[in-house]
Structure prediction request, 230 residues.
Amino acid sequence: MSVDTDESPRGRIVAAALRLLEASGPDAVSTRAVSAAAGVQAPTIYRLFGDKQGLLDAVATEGFTSYIAAKTAGEPHPDPVEDLRASWDEHVAMGLAHPALYELMYARARPGSPALEAAADVLAKRIGRIAEAGRLRVPEERAVGLVRAVGEGTTLTLIATPEDRRDPHLAESAREAVIAAITTDAPALPDPGPIPAAAALRAALPGVDALSPAELGMLREWLDRITGSS
Prediction:
């Protein structure tokens, strides 16, 4: 996992902690080891991060920042479902390439972490594209939750399994099970049914300016009731 080059004391400390984390795990990220690797005095770490947990939070945030930048750098696939497949594969690959960092980012993340929420927002936008295409069979929030739960759980399971015992098809099977649960095939008929149509309209509401806020709220509630009826 690459990080931005930052020669400030804070940048050097985060980079040193990340190197120690990736080489030997979180137990190696001690104040003494980080201060030696970063070329700073231990009090500087406490002044900038408060304690070891604060430093680990900063490392996780840096990991999320780099990860989000990589995921949003290229053009999305024209087919939003294929875009989700590619995103899933990239997510699993990142976890297997950087297991200690991944566990810090996802298994040890503090509830409400802004960095974690930013990553979830990237996923929500991908799910929103599927909804706009009329191919989402469940509410967007549920789809995001399913992808996160199964994707993160699958990656953590693979990380915890010795490499020579990993099921090489586990991630693909989990991915396809989730995609089958949340999406429909490309509609062959003009009318794909009420739930995908409602999900598509729900996803397009932010661009609607012909209704008042109260009217938008009422329409949003109706559409949520339709998409939640499955």
Observations:
- The two ends are 40 Å apart (CA to CA).
- The chain has a mean pLDDT of 87.
